[in-house]
Amino acid sequence: MAKLREYEQFVGSDVIDELELYAGKLQNVSVQNINSTAVGGGVAEILTRMIPLLKELGVNACWDVIKGGEKFFEVTKKMHNALHGQQVTFTRDEIDLYLYTNEQNRNEMELNRDIIFIHDPQPCALVLAKKSNGNRWIWRCHIDFSNPDLFTWQFLKEYINKYDVSVFSAPSFARKLKVPQVLISPSIDPTSDKNKELPDEIITSVLEKFGIDRKRPIVTQISRFDYLKDPVGVVKVFKLVKKYADCQLVLAGGGATDDPEGAKVLNDVREIVENDPDIFLLLLPPASDIEINALQRASSVVLQKSLKEGFGLTVAEALWKSKPVIAGAVGGIPLQITNKYSGLLTHSIEGTAFALKQLLQNPDYAKRLGENGRENIRRNFLITRHLRDYLLLFLSLITKNEDVVYL
Amino acid sequence: MDNKTANGFRFYTRQNLIFLLGRRAKNLSELLAGIKAVPPMTIFQHTHHYLIQHEHISPEPPNDFAYWITSALQDKLLGEKIASIDLRRYSDLEKIRTELINIVKTAQEDIEGMPHHNSPSGEEFHFMSARSFVFPTKYVANTLQEFKECLEKVSVYSIYFHVFEARFHKKEFDFSLWLSKSLGEEKLAEEFSKLDPYTQTIENLRKTLVKLIMNKLEGNKNGKA
Q1: Domain total for chain A?
Q2: In A138-199, alpha helices (H)
């Protein structure tokens, strides 16, 4: 894991100095993070990077994982899907199992740190321990909350309202709650395999591996094969554009082999591709960060034509590589792209095709959008900003509840 | 709070934690209702945060209200009017609120009888607020030369705080006030006050302020007042 000062090269020493300044006010504060898995998934990935940085800053941070059986995690997976908007029904037994597992963990865990930082719905009901301890509790929602299933939302809301503060990733996820809602966007780590600088020969070797011609323009969308990412729409966009501008299309992602819907989406995409040799459908295994990095870096334009999106960190990844991005104006994407300033936001296949033609045929304009985009990510969506927001969040819980806090 | 030294000027920095109000608007009427009801820090957030968030883009996108009216409601005239409110004139957020209300109301009267124009689904305006955390930095100036050197070193967040945010909170953080009261540099203070910081990036503003000081220092060296 990178040390804090290694980020100076990306954000400048003044930003790191200021992080130390804020953390200086939290030296005696202990923060216990709790989630449901130690490895795999975005939450574990960010905690793996965040905890050492918090500790380096002198914050007494730790990370614990709740225990639960297979059935419990089946229930919480269902809950996760429901909060994403899927219609599901829960049996009484399933609800009881969720509450029982939380109760078991409540009894076994020491929940006595100054700040208890709960991530996602799985351990949400641990908050019932709050009353006896008198410490401050945060519930951090990492998932798309724009259209949750009503029953699941009503059930969970009862527990969320017992926290001191809740945290969401995008403005559209805000709900009517009794507790304050803080906006903290996720972030990317510029030192990770997915985002670090790559030697040119690695980029070339990845393209050669997939048979992609580096001399011709490359248009890329990185996402799992999912209807909500609209890969069929992306192929339609490409076909409209290819009549006027030479280019190749790369659709790269995982999630097809063990996911029945993914396999169906992939079939739909294959059907419309019709063996076009300029379209590359790449099913990447889970540990493909270097390949994704190389594909993004080799691209002339990156698309993220999502119809619905959580935060859409693939947009931040592409912008960080100074790529001009055309994306759907959904979820957290408008936070990352200000239309016509740091990328283009579109709403239709025709609009996306028009934007793509513009960028392929006006490389100076495309370059300017890419450079503005990178700067926006550098200032607002790197892990150092995420770290700063967490420090402010902790400070907000131990200082006076005023609009302006002088420290 | 660790305040200014006796006659020196301490530079402060600030960061905001953003709060979501759970209130949204999909048309002009809902936006107006929101502007009337939200806390003052929400008015500040939506008229100022873009200055620091998009600091790197030149020309910068306009404030949140203007950007949304232009891009989501496609009302370029009203967007332009909101974008060009002379925010420099105000040191009271309620007056900015009143100005916003007046402009939006007038626009509504102009389109009275016409159907409501709604933003596309998913592009609603989300009202937010902020809590500002202000920290003293290690930079303290006792002379004009030191002030220039500090100004060159402090973060953009510090400049943002002193130029944009401080006047809504405490006057003692104001550059011009210190230059005139503590250093007797009234002419320089006036030059600082006359700048419109809203129409340039913070880095540009830093360069302009440093240049004004250098001119003054050069003038002092050459024996001018």
Answers
A1: 2
A2: 150-160
CA distance A343 to A334: 10
- Interface contact flag, B155 A380, Cβ < 8 Å: no
* Residue B2 pLDDT grade (very low, low, confident, very high; cuts 50, 70, 90): very low
Could you tell me if A85 and A218 lie in one domain? no
Q: What CATH number is associated with residue A211?
A: 3.40.50.2000
Task: Flag whether the ipTM exceeds 0.85.
Answer: yes
CA A212 → CA A206, A218, A282, A367, B64, distances in Å?
Answer: 9, 8, 11, 22, 42
State pLDDT tens for residues A206-227: 999 999 999 999 999 999 888 8
List the 180-219 stretch of A: residues with Cβ below 8 A of B. Answer: 180-184
Residue A193 lies in a domain: no
| pLDDT tens profile B128-142 | 999 999 999 999 999
A172 and A149, same structural domain? yes
- How many domains is chain B partitioned into structurally? 2
Q: Are B169 and A404 in contact (CB < 8 Å)?
A: yes
Rounded distance, CA A299 to CA A219, Å?
Answer: 6
**Shared-domain flag, residues B102 and B124:** yes
B22–A22 CB contact, under 8 Å: no
* Domain-embedded: residue A120: yes
A392, B124: Cβ pair inside 8 Å?
no
Q: Are residues A180 and A328 in the same domain?
A: no
pLDDT of residue B5: 43
How far apart CA A31 and CA A54 sit, in angstroms, is 10
B174 and B105 belong to one structural domain: no
Other residues' Cβ atoms within 10 Å of the Cβ of residue A70: 6
Do A394 and A279 belong together in one domain? Answer: no
Q: Reading across the β-sheet that carries A218-222, which strands appear in turn?
A: A279-283, A248-253, A218-222, A301-304, A325-328, A344-346
Range of the domain at B65: 14-129
A208 and A175, same structural domain? no
pLDDT 10s digits, B32-81: 999 999 999 999 999 998 887 766 665 666 899 999 999 899 999 999 99
Instruction: Report mean pLDDT in 10-residue bins for chain A, 407 residues.
Output: 94 92 93 90 86 97 95 91 87 97 96 95 95 86 86 95 95 91 96 96 97 97 89 97 96 66 86 94 90 98 90 94 95 89 94 97 96 94 97 95 89
Nearest CA in chain A to B165: A404
